[in-house]
């Protein structure tokens, strides 16, 4: 009885300091493997649901892709039938769906109607451009949002906190395409007395080589990156601020201060690590969206990435390309969410019990 009674204050003290009480590791038992199996199973089910949705959803789009392939030329019914047979559009819907699923499982997402090339090749071709744009913006707005969110929470109620929060809420509520168009008008076209400083769109001017080419791409990159950072950083700021405010009233912070630790050490070593869980979730979700790209921003700035390719395919409609891009977008988000779920127990042992 005495040993059990003595161990209770020790466990409480460890919890107050943000440490796990001594005992057997939970991940060493069967709890963590069951947790991992459940999350992986849920990811597989989600991917199958996306596969089904991507096939049936885009068949509701008005327009005949076969007529698009003829380039608007008058053709006979026999020629239209040949096109439909070539792309399998003459088959019953259930058979088209079965063929689509079997090919997708082997990595074959079909052949684009408008480009007459494998969908996978078109995705691989546009993916680096999207990663350059959204990856650059992701690093900037994640670091900026986490830094400003931490400072706002630690000085909550002050002038800086109110200004940061108000600006973040305002920019977060602005549609990205509207902000992009506004930046083009002001900083690309130019409004007196502001001259046009940046290109109106595209990824490069052409004709440049070596380091000059790198500078040219960076010049084209500025406005779309600024648009994405301005719209997205506020979400990270608000989530980080809210999570840190929830932690600041914890007993373990009072204990740390009572031990003589400075406020900045209390924040960096105790409060911020324990407030990471919601921010980690958001980071992984945004990382999945990085692969998907931002359709509206890429379209406004004519950026040759996955988002612009999706918009182009949707206007036809190019069913194989639209389906393939939709599946890749959703798969990236599902994968990142699953990785975040698997990382949770490593950050907080209470998760997955």
Write up this protein.
The longest helix has 37 residues. The N terminus is likely disordered. α6 packs across α9 and α12 packs antiparallel against α15. It is built from 15 helices and no strands. Helices cover 72% and strands 0% of the residues. With 353 residues, it is an all-alpha fold.
Please tag this protein with its features.
353 residues; mainly alpha; 72% helix; 0% strand; flat; disordered N terminus
Break the fold down into its secondary structure elements and pairings.
Blueprint: H1 2-16, H2 31-57, H3 65-69, H4 77-86, H5 93-105, H6 119-154, H7 159-172, H8 176-190, H9 211-247, H10 251-258, H11 263-274, H12 276-292, H13 295-300, H14 306-314, H15 319-347
Helix pairs in contact: 2-5, 2-15, 6-7, 6-9, 6-12, 6-15, 7-9, 8-9, 9-12, 10-11, 12-15, 14-15
Describe what is shown at a glance.
It is built from 15 helices and no strands. The protein has 353 residues and is an all-alpha fold. The longest helix is centred in the middle third of the chain and has 37 residues.
Question: Would you tell me the overall average pLDDT?
Answer: 79
Q: List unreliable stretches of 5+ residues.
A: 1-28
Secondary-structure element order, as H and E? HHHHHHHHHHHHHHH
Structural class: mainly alpha
Q: What share of residues are in beta strands?
A: under 5%
Global outline: flat
Q: Radius of gyration, Cα only, in angstroms? A: 26 Å
Alpha-carbon distance between the termini? 27 Å
* Main sheet properties: none
């Amino acid at each position: 009885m005495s040993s059990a009674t003595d161990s209770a204050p020790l466990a409480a003290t460890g919890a107050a300091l943000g440490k796990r009480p001594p005992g057997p590791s939970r991940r060493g038992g069967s709890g963590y493997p069951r947790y991992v199996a459940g999350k992986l199973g849920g990811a597989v089910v989600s991917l199958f649901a996306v596969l089904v949705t991507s096939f049936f959803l885009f068949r509701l789009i008005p327009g005949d892709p076969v007529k698009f392939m003829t380039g608007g030329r008058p053709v006979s019914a026999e020629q239209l039938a040949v096109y439909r047979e070539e792309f399998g559009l003459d088959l019953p819907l259930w058979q088209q769906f079965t063929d689509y699923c079997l090919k997708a499982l082997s990595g074959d997402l079909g052949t684009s109607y408008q480009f007459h090339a494998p969908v996978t090749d078109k995705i691989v071709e546009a993916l680096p451009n999207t990663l350059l744009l959204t990856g650059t913006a992701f690093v900037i707005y994640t670091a900026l949002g986490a830094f400003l969110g931490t400072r706002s929470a630690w000085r909550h109620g002050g002038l800086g906190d109110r200004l940061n929060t108000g600006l973040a809420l305002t920019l977060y509520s602005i549609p990205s395409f509207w902000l992009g168009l506004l930046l083009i008008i002001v900083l690309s076209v130019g409004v007196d007395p502001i001259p046009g400083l940046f290109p109106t769109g595209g990824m490069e001017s052409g004709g440049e080589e070596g380091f000059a080419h790198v500078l040219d791409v960076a010049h084209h990159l500025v406005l779309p990156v600024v648009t994405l950072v301005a719209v997205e950083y506020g979400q990270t700021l608000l989530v980080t601020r809210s999570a840190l405010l929830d932690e600041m009233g914890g007993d373990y912070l009072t204990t740390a201060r009572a031990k003589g630790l400075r406020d900045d050490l209390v924040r960096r070593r105790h409060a911020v690590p324990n407030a990471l869980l919601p921010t980690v979730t958001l980071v992984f979700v945004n990382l999945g969206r990085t692969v998907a790209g931002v359709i509206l921003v890429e379209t406004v700035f004519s950026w040759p990435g996955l988002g612009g390719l999706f918009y182009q395919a949707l206007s036809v409609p190019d069913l194989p390309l639209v389906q393939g891009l939709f599946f890749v977008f959703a798969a990236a988000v599902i994968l990142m969410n699953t990785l975040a779920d698997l990382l949770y127990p490593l950050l907080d042992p209470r998760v997955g019990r």
